[in-house]
Amino acid sequence: MRIILHVWRQKDANSPGRMVRYEVNNVNPHMSFLEMLDVLNEELTLKGEEPIAFDHDCREGICGMCGFMINGRAHGPLEGTTVCQLHMRHFKDGDELWLEPYRARAFPVIRDLVVDRSALDRLIAAGGYISVNAGSAPDANSIPVPKPVAEKAMDAAACIGCGACVAQCPNASASLFLGAKISHLGLLPQGQPERYERVLKMVTQAALEGFGHCTNIGECEAVCPKRIKLEVIARLNRDYLIATLKHIGVKETVEAGVG
Amino acid sequence: MELDGKCPTGPIETRWDRHKFELKLISPANKRKYTIIVVGTGLAGASASATLAELGYNVKCYCYQDSPRRAHSIAAQGGINAAKNYQNDGDSVYRLFYDTIKGGDFRSRESNVYRLAQLSVDIIDHCVAQGIPFAREYGGLLANRSFGGALVSRTFYARGQTGQQLLLGAYQAMQRQIAAGRLTMFPRHEMLELVVVNGCARGIVTRNLINGKIESHAADAVILATGGYGNVYYLSTMCKGANATAIWRAYRKGAFFANPCFTQIHPTCIPVSGEYQSKLTLMSESLRNDGRIWVPLKKGDTRPPNEIPEEERDYYLERMYPAYGNLVPRDIASRAAKRVCDEGRGVGPGGYGVYLDFRDAIQRLGVSVIRERYGNLFEMYERLTGEDPYKVPMRIYPAIHYTMGGLWVDYNLMSTIPGLFVIGEANFSDHGANRLGASALMQGLADGYFIVPYTVGHYLASTKLEKVSTDQAEFRDAEREVADRIRKLLSIRGRRTVDSLHRELGKLMWEYCGMARNAQGLQYALKKIPELREEFWSNVNVLGSGEEFNQALERAGRVADFMELAELICYDALHRNESCGGHFREEYQTPEGEALRNDAEYAYVAAWEFTGVGNPPRLHKEPLVFEYVKPTERSYK
Fold first, then answer.
1. CATH number for the domain that contains residue B283
2. What is the interface pTM, i.e. ipTM, of the complex?
3. What is the pLDDT of residues B34-60, one digit of tens each?
4. Residue numbers in B near A51 (CB within 8 A)
5. Which of A117, B440, B613, B623 sits 20 to 30 Å CA-CA off B356?
6. Domain, as residue range, for B281
7. How far apart (Å, rounded) are the C-alpha atoms in residues B389 and A132?
8. End-to-end CA distance of chain B
9. Residues 189-218 of A with CB under 8 A from B
10. Residue B558 and residue B486 in contact, taking contact as beta carbons nearer than 8 Å
């Protein structure tokens, strides 16, 4: 197979970037997309051209490190799949593909297809946890959790923090990411004591980081490699509403980014 | 020199409790005066840094990824063991201890393993309190499944994403400490040197991967939680970035490296599909609960699997090991797969694969039950191979998965360099010559949540440490070494890429120091590795500069260290004239082809000391004493 790539090349955050055209010949349909880029990078290196930078690590679709836009779609055309798990058998000979980094104000470009997603870590630091120190827990079976609740919490907890939802959203909103954590912890009995304080803090932080509002477009759900459902945003909004009605004190009030 | 593991004596059930009481404490008000460096944010590193910060220490934590949540613990699928006996099936702390000692083929310390089994119980309690969404029964209580090497169900799991959920729990605990100001995180920072001052570990030198800045960081103690070294084989189930640089730099500074040849080959991975292959993907061992492993009885049978009738199939694990069947430990399942493929009965392109078949389980339980248990794994398999495992059996083959060896540590998890602690897969401590499934997560979290927070405190309370500053000579010298090395890598501009050299090293290691080893092959590898290292340092091509984001440069530094480590692995494999666990020397096997241990001569931990690149390392022995579980032939029949 022969694939034509147009790849965003940008030396660093302060340099201008541009699309550069490459041809990759002899693409094996069993290769993963990233293996195809590996092959291209080997060729570029031997020609004395600097290889294309892209983030990746586990290559099993679970670490969340990889991700860029393929023809305007985060992680490419295959539903429920990270780009490291996308195989070339889903493309045709002669296909022309445009690769761009995730674009969002909260995700500055580092180089080529690599962006800085540390804003997502700061959202978790704002309250995406249950406060429990090591050594203080009761016996595990003293907290029964109904199976359907545990399953729903697990559906939300499956988020890998790749940022595809933000990149695809026209508003660059992080609501699917936020909603996933709010749902995971808010559904479980262990998460109840901090439930409303958590949502206020996380939503406030999202606004500070420059993530946009959710306007219920649903692009995030469409590209989520772990198929996190829009339902988590409904939970986020409901908890946020209740929290504001309860007037739980969060010192700074910032116009919050929920829809 | 005989090494002392400083294990407590007396009744094994009370050793850890008595030891904990003897460990010195630091008052809450004084803890904040100490700074502790943690390198790596997998289960061990994340749990240690969160817990140390909770206790009040100043913690600085480093990882090469863009976020601590990416570390490769996240990819662990199957589960975590704990001796809860919730299933009322005869489990106990003592049985988990016994299974782990036996599973490790009698090459681990009884004291460490007993402590691990004890702490397993606390880990589950803590993780449930953190909100880990473990699988539940309809009554709301925790569910369990069984894993290789055990006859009880003691494995807790969160679908096929147990590692992810446990890591996110520890990561969230870290983020809470970051918000509290007690923990500072340095993502996209790679440790490239250890700094030793007056014989004690006092800091590290890192490279900022975004702008290339070389920086020194000082502390009162350093904890390495940097994972295993399986990527020395190029193809493994490890993440692409996993490397040995941190532990290798520590080894070069005087930390001993224990049992490097104990590498684990996981039996259920997706077979290699081509030369471009960048990594191998594991299919969780939990699949062996319901999947049956087989190959055709006849050699070279190329019929599609569903056309091969029952009587022409060889369910070889069930035939050879009727008591454990498909749930024999990993080393045994892997070797059996290699044997049937070497006989010419392997399946798939190239003949290096065996079937993992769910037909019978689907008939017995229905598709929906199988989907609930393994849905995400089946989906992953289909995505990678384009085949539907609900209809055709999976094809699997063994691959490098875990390294039991690592830096030598005593019972306090401290290396031979005072103040340098090593936890998780990076140390050698608990798994002997073979790790049982679902025990890596257990060990990482036991080390990080419940052991190192006590033992680091004891070290700080009982050691007089002078003030250090990153301006002093030891730090400056280390920075210079790092900068020189980077300059050298960038100045070669040869004709080969980093990956092509790495791949060549990996092939050599897999061929001569992989699933089966012999003296002749190891001697050959020991001759070839220095040649390849020479080729690397004279012909590698790394473009760009050191002052920018440069992924080829990152890889080059890691591969340079693998080129040295590979030699150590082969020395260790050659010296150990016996077969045990993952180390199978063809010269030493029973008539049935099982591993033949030599307890009279090799019941020790082999800890190696660095003597210079290209020089044979110096061997130190720590004798292993078995007071509770008497070494016997490890039988799973």
1. 3.90.700.10
2. 0.96
3. 999 999 999 999 999 999 999 999 999
4. 543, 551-552
5. B440
6. 265-401
7. 41
8. 39
9. 190-191
10. no
